[in-house]
Amino acid sequence: MAGLSVQKFTLVFFAPSSAVAGCKKAIFAAGAGRYPGPGNYTECCWTARGMGQFRPGDAANPNIGKVGQLEEVEEVRVETLCVGEDIARKAVEALKSAHPYEEPSYSVYRMEDF
To answer: Which residue positions does the secretion signal occupy (predicted)?
Structure first.
């Protein structure tokens, strides 16, 4: 029987360009972006620039834009590896603390090991 492997996750989030460095610093400090193996790689991620848009609702307190007005913002998509559910959860909490938006956009995907 093969040894048990640790579950891996991909964390994907979007942030305005000015906040990306701080968000990455926070998630990396929480353990995200580390690849298991002899290479001891850390702070690994993939980024791409794009345009995000949102319209803050009546009860919103937006960091960028105004309530009721459609806002378009240059944002960066960041993808990184989280080895273990505990690291994924810690990275999400770190992201929420570092991100300037009151509702940061992020997703966590469970990876399969083939």
So the answer is: 1-19
Of the two residues 45 and 38, the one the predictor is more confident about is 45
Continuous H helices in 19-109? 20-29, 85-98
pLDDT band at 58 (very low <50, low <70, confident <90, very high): very high
- Any idea where the domains of the chain sit in the sequence? 19-110
In sequence order, what E strands does the chain have? Answer: 8-16, 46-54, 71-83, 105-110
**CATH class of the domain defined by 19-110:** alpha beta
Give the chain's length.
114
Instruction: For residues 45 and 107, give the distance between their C-alpha atoms in angstroms, rounded to a whole number.
Output: 15
Name the average pLDDT for the chain: 94
What are the Cα distances from residue 51, in Å, to 42, 73, 75? 28, 6, 6
Helix then strand then coil, in percent of the chain rounded to 5, is: 25, 30, 45
Query: Cα(17)–Cα(44) distance, rounded to whole angstroms?
Result: 18
The one-letter code for the residue type at 47 is: T
